[in-house]
Here is the input.
Amino acid sequence: NTPSLSRPPVLVVTCQLPALAQQRLEALTDVEVRQHGSLQSMPRAALLGALADADGLICVLSDRIDAEAVQAFGPRLRVVSTVSVGYDHVDVAAVQRRGVRIGNTPGVLTDATADTTVLLALMAARRAKQALALAEGGGGGFVLAGELGSQFTGKALGIIGLGRIGCATAARLLPFGIARVVYAGSRAHAERATPLGAEYVTLPELLRVADIVCICCPLTEQTAGLIGRGALASMKPSAILVNTARGAIVCHDALLEALDAGRIAHAALDVTDPEPLPVEHPLLRHPRCTVLPHIGSATEETRSAMANLAIDNALAGIQGRPMVAEVGE
Ligand code: DGY
Here is the structure.
């Protein structure tokens, strides 16, 4: 099904890109760009309709490229380029069975996401949510024994998933005086762990010893619901849990129970399941749960780099060239 040359390739883009990448997209001459003109992603029906005639798709993680979307692929589609490192929203096997290549954006968001992980860890440890509420309510001022958090000096850091973001998080937190770094995951990574002095342990051991638990692994069949009742019960009552990976790795009902029962000290989540959480969700108002709206990679620099990489991948896919980052390659 070689695309006919009678019209330029059509590149469907499901939302507006950050300014510099948007300018680049608008200046492309060798493709016809059909873009949803909003910061929010294209409605589902519009996406399914647009796929029929597309040669390439640039999408984001709120666009589900599932079996239904794959059914809607037209014969010309050659590439799905997601503006994200994670691709759990893409049914990889179904897409690849259709001969469509998948691009993602590893590497360029490592620093921003690790920064956010540290931000959340500090917010949790220093009870920033309560302190902000106190100050904004006109209370506070110096209270000798009030609003006491914990500090990282001498503490054990547990990283679930020692990939790029996990390593960058550990490297940022070590200078805070962390005494021990442990990590868990599908296998040991001596080459990454050695410079950080990190020890490979089982997940139960990590949860037992860590004061700060950072979830930095992808969402897969193996990690969905990984942090449930049992896992939370085995953590220290003084521990904090930080999730900047994917919401579905943590069972939210179990987390709420654990916070209510004082089984852990604080949870800080950049990601939730679903996103956004319904406005009445009790985790949003819980004094010991901090929730951010998936801003891990949200800096001008990083989101522009992600969008540029996604454009590169999409053009390479449409033109049949090697991609900068291709899933499964
Ligand atoms: C990703 O790219 O997968 C991140 O979650 C975006 O912040």
Residues 36 and 224 are 31 Å apart (CA to CA). The chain has two domains: 10-106+300-319, 110-291.
